């Protein structure tokens, strides 16, 4: 059974849920964890791909879009496909809904920012997990100032 972790940016924190995702991915990568970032919207997936290249000047996070890189050689994958070939221990969900195959992961991370639509969808996902016996944890987050402006 996966652990379900909601990470909510505090109102005074710089950045958005995409920068928060970069922050989460950096820590997971440093721990040697394989990650699949579920981002079903193509333009947002490309946006996150670009952000991961520029997130911090002094770090390198090997990543790529599903279907464009070799999943066996790429520890951080971004895309809509949750197929078995994208084996990862952690799922970061950037979709508005709960991914159908979330339970096959060891951990699900749900980054949430202050956007009202994002928060409303997150509340629904929180209840979905809880009501099905996956008790979510909640972690308020504040990104460092340099995360909002990496250069």
Description:
There is one protein chain. By secondary structure, the chain is α/β, with parallel strands linked by helices. It contains 4 helices and 7 strands. A 7-stranded parallel β-sheet has the order 3-4-2-5-6-1-7, sandwiched between helices. Helix 1 crosses helix 2 (42-54). The longest helix has 16 residues, at 116-131. It is globular, with a radius of gyration of 14 Å. 32% of the residues are buried.
Shape designation: globular
According to CATH, the fold-level topology is Rossmann fold
Alpha-carbon distance between the two ends: 40 Å
The CATH architecture term is 3-Layer(aba) Sandwich
The structural domain count equals 1
Structural class: alpha/beta
Brief summary of the model shown:
The protein is an alpha/beta fold and 151 residues long. It is built from four helices and seven strands. The protein has a seven-stranded parallel beta sheet, with helices on both faces.
Which properties best describe this structure?
single chain; about 150 residues; alpha/beta; Rossmann fold; 7-stranded parallel beta sheet; 4 helices; globular
Layout: helices, strands, pairs:
Blueprint: E1 3-9, H1 17-30, E2 35-38, H2 42-54, E3 63-65, E4 76-79, E5 90-93, E6 107-112, H3 116-131, E7 136-141, H4 145-148
Parallel strand pairs: 1-6, 1-7, 2-4, 2-5, 3-4, 5-6
Helix pairs in contact: 1-2
